[in-house]
Amino acid sequence: MNERNIMDYETVALDDANNALVIIDQTLLPGRTELISLHTAQEIWDAIYLLKVRGAPAIGVAAAFGIYLLAKQIQTDDYAVFYEEFRKQKDYLNSARPTAVNLSWALNRMEQVCVQNQDLPVAEIKDKLKAESILMKEEDIHVCKAIGEYGLTLVKPGDGILTHCNAGQLATCKYGTATAPIYLGQERGYHFRVFADETRPLLQGARLTSYELYSSGVDVTLICDNMSATVMRNGWVNAVFVGCDRVAANGDTANKIGTSVVATVAKRYHVPVYICAPTSTIDMNTPTGADITIEQRPAHEVTDMWYEKPMAPAGVKVFNPAFDVTDHDLIAGIVTEYGIAREPYTESLREIFALKKAGKGICP
Ligand code: MRU
Fold first, then answer.
1. Predicted TM-score (pTM) above 0.70
2. Which of 27, 160, 169, 212 has the fewest CB atoms found within 10 Å of its own CB?
């Protein structure tokens, strides 16, 4: 039996000596904690598609380690040949999931390392790719902590917080985004009462968020997705913190399916909804939520998966979008590592990126 706490594991790690990307297989949680080593493009693609590694920032870092490992295997000293093969592998990994912008963000950043260093020998470009991927992991930890600090300013000790899906440590390299204020509050004696939506159909809230928080000693209560109105009506929720997969330039936000339902209900009960968003998840090239591609997933995730027997008649029509868009007017603030953006988001998000460009404002 494994005695280690889930919080002691690294969500995503590079095992360079063995040419492997190492992840926790999240589809097995909470029952079994198993680390798996991925070596090939197909294995990495499958792990992302099947949600063995999931959550926007974790997908980004996994893709960065993955493309480094695939680049390392390219046997040539010719930059043009190397770059062409790199692009092929990059496009392949990028096709695993469409909504979380961190996937293409991370892969583009890695491609820039090749382009900017094209005059160097290929072996040195590979070293630089390794360094960049490691830096991205370190940055993710720093960014999540900063989001936690800013998020903590929005709540007070004893507050009730509702969250949806898993924007926790398992979705990032540490702290999570939406859970970062909760973990920092826990360290500082805030005694939050957290409600975790189970998050149909893949149950990230039940399997991952409630597991993480419970394992960390946080006061967490698991609820079904259709109970958020009840806990808000009862006055048990002071704020909603959720993560995101892509924030458009106008603040419209794609996150796990059901987030927009929570936000609509929260508006009814005057509960503020905060989107915790690393700048790597904010896509200023996507004007509005209508321009975000929403991933459609297979029917069996709704009808069969996680059940001992089918829960729907064979052949019934199923609609299974993995994400929805929460309109910006339902969002009280977007918490980034450079501060909290507020309406009008078109302006405030631009200001956040100006701070980033100037290298200012990130919480220590
Ligand atoms: O399908 P998933 O499990 O990858 O969806 C994850 C989410 O929707 C998270 O809320 C989002 O990626 C933010 S993770 C910090």
1. yes
2. 27
